[in-house]
Fold each of these.
Amino acid sequence: MPYPEIRPRRLRRNAAVRRLVSETRVDPAELVLPMFVKEGLTEPRAVASLPGVLQHSRDSLRKAAVEAVQAGVGGIMLFGVPTRKDETGSGGIDPDGILNVAIRDVIAEVGDATVVMSDLCLDEFTSHGHCGLLTPDGAVDNDATLEAYARMAVAQADAGVHMVGPSGMMDGQVGVVRRALDAAGHQDVSVLAYAVKYASAFFGPFRDAVESALEGDRRAYQQDPANLRESLREVELDVAEGADLVMVKPALPYLDVVSAVRAAVDVPVAAYQVSGEYATVEAAAANGWIDRERVMLETLTSIRRAGAQIILTYWAVEAAQLLRQRY
Ligand code: PBG
């Protein structure tokens, strides 16, 4: 031993020392639970590719929202699954559409006890499955889509949501949503911008959960996984347009992006541990190949360590319960 006095292992010798020197703690208050609600269901229904995740009925959604609050999660993010999809995704704007109705239900149930967020995107509501309106030749029309997002934002805010999450990756979406909210008197509703969103194969199981009709892909609006600097540009634009928080998505395959975004801006940074990240761990654990709980907490710790202050995860409730016991 050339330097006998330097022994890093002294700080790892038992659980008490390790706890004392731990640099990163995941707090339940920083976890957000994504939840699905499907129009017309009387009982919740399992999503085959997302074991443990449900398509809720309106009723079971309210109950699950209460459970999430009791577990201490910081927020819930709502996604609606309509029975009927159409060309323009009108169900997302209709005040009686499933997502807007579910926002009202959840707000009536939990009020301000947690932060209630809603996905602001058309893909769950369109018959073609794209995140925006199409031109006659089938391309996604950026500016026509912005008008739809503005109306959708106001409908969600009218339903009482605390925070909207524009996720369609249209240019200018944050500015348009912010202005529409302000013009409708919803200055208090904040914008969680999906600023960085890659055209990721990790979204696969989510598309089952929302019964997406998409054929083809989203590469003309979501980002190329090869690019990092482009993400900094996206984040800078969203902050300039009025984003209150910015999000990176997916999380684990993009920790370098999370870290670069954290260094670039002062607004809170969130990361979305998406469906495919969850499903791959669940599948390996179901085969007995990995220790499910340890891997779950290790992934959350790593996302937190990379610089995400807030994590959207399908494990939010379970992780919150485990973390409570731990600290
Ligand atoms: C778009 C949206 C998607 C996800 C969240 N918001 C799907 C997509 O862009 O294709 C994916 C989340 C996940 O995979 O868990 N409304």
Note: The first strand starts at residue 31 and ends at 38.
Amino acid sequence: MKFQPTASHFINGAYVEDTSGAPIDVIYPATGNVIARLHSATPDIVNQALTSAKNAQADWAALSGTERGRVLRRAADIMRERNRELSILETHDTGKPLQETLVADATSGADALEYFGGLAASLTGEHIPLGGGDFVYTIREALGVCVGIGAWNYPTQIACWKGAPALACGNTMVFKPSETTPLSALQVAEILIEAGAPKGVYNVIQGYGDVGASLVTDPRVAKVSLTGSVPTGRKVYAAAADGMKHVTMELGGKSPMIVFDDADIENAVSGAILGNFYSSGQVCSNGTRVFVQKGIKEAFLKRLSERLENAIIGDPLDENVNFGPMVSENQLNIALSYVEKGKADGALLVYGGTRIEGNGYYMQPTVFADVTDDMAIAREEIFGPVMSVLDFDTEQEVLARANDTEFGLAAGVFTNDLTRAHRVVAGFEAGTCYINTYNLAPVEAPFGGSKMSGVGRENSKLAINHFSEMKTVYVSMNDVEAPY
Ligand code: NDP
């Protein structure tokens, strides 16, 4: 098999296999063919990975930030040099078109390694002067062993978005990718070793949810960072709470995108396309509830349908193709079941809606109009290429409806009225907001959700606070006064 890795797991700087673990078949979503066979981690493998991370942590944290940063920046360079090869692997793992993976996966992972590599040398505590000459200084310390658990839509990116800030702060990591897309995190682990990371600093083990669960409850683990669905997030957060572990939860969404009638329609349609159909709709922050002001509804839908005719659906390895298969048959069936629910609830199917026959897990980009707030397609995360268009009249009305969801990951507004744009954004109950664009996530900006969409932030300087803690040191320059 062309994409068979040396072994399933990467522990203490080397590939490790244990074929007694449950098999994991890696399927290329464009054909349905098995491209690799791996094995889920046994309790012994889990133990080896955690032991390796635990043993490596103190020495890694004892290096200067400059030295740790140098390793991360070298790893970023290697990832960029190998971008094409890594992108081809990512396309086979996820089914996402090469046109996308070449610019959004290893490159985004490299950005995180470079950014946090650059920050590592400047991570410090502070000096706090007190009265009478006393003072406090704080020491920024690593948390210890961190666990990263990933979803299947951006496997390389997630492995790096979690690994880079963790390592920059002096932590070590055990990362478990989704069993649907297990291949690319192994490459990240290899590259870090090649870049000079000591053995055991970044380990990868494969497995189903039970492996993730056993990592979360292990007493050696100080922090858990999960990218996944809300139901999984609830379980992982609760399990972590029992051990009082730090958490970052990057969970699902049902984000609103509001298009006012003064918006530039071409830009709004572009935003709706990016925010619903990039990666075949398998993006957590997607703006899947598109609220369009009544005056431009017809023009918006007409232009959207025209533009969707230009989607090139097909072999993801063909760089002209810009719309690929869904990651798995299961995910395809979930998305198709929502199409049926939309129809049954009375929404108007204006584009797509069917599976594309032949090999692979393809469906058409799909648009429903006349969607109302109570329909399942407007309330539940589909995680597929299904856009719901809802009408509205006024700003006050649409903002209340946009916020009427348990999720709070992202939100966007398209308007040429600047004061309205900022007013609407101020009212959004969401962690990541957009004005006249959608779904950009540069490493310099905090990314994460409010409400049920998560806890904590990834990327930016804020991520440092989620992978380190402060030790406070009070220094007395005076005699000690005691009451007796
Ligand atoms: P899941 O929640 O099903 O799984 C996420 C990860 O958690 C997988 O590696 C999974 O393993 C693991 N897992 C499952 N159960 C447990 C458990 N009890 N304890 C520990 N780990 C467990 O999500 P998907 O992989 O299906 O990804 C899609 C979801 O991810 C969507 O809801 C999407 O919105 C969200 N997402 C959020 C992002 C964000 O940044 N906010 C970005 C990308 C996706 P296994 O797969 O082997 O079961």
Note: The two ends are 78 Å apart (CA to CA).
